[in-house]
Request: fold
Amino acid sequence: MDHIIKEVANVIWRRFARGEISPEEAKIMFKAMKEILGKAIKIEEENALY
Reply:
């Protein structure tokens, strides 16, 4: 899961760096990602899965 979060953040950053999205759009995307992580996804310790 940690890898997915990093990849999504990298996509947002790359799109911003290339000028494909505005700073405001990037902020909105990061905020949405943070909200999803806080509400919709339950991240558990690796040990808890076994």
Q: What stands out?
A: Residues 9 and 29 are 9 Å apart (CA to CA). The chain has one domain: 2-49. The longest helix spans residues 23-39. The chain has a mean pLDDT of 84.
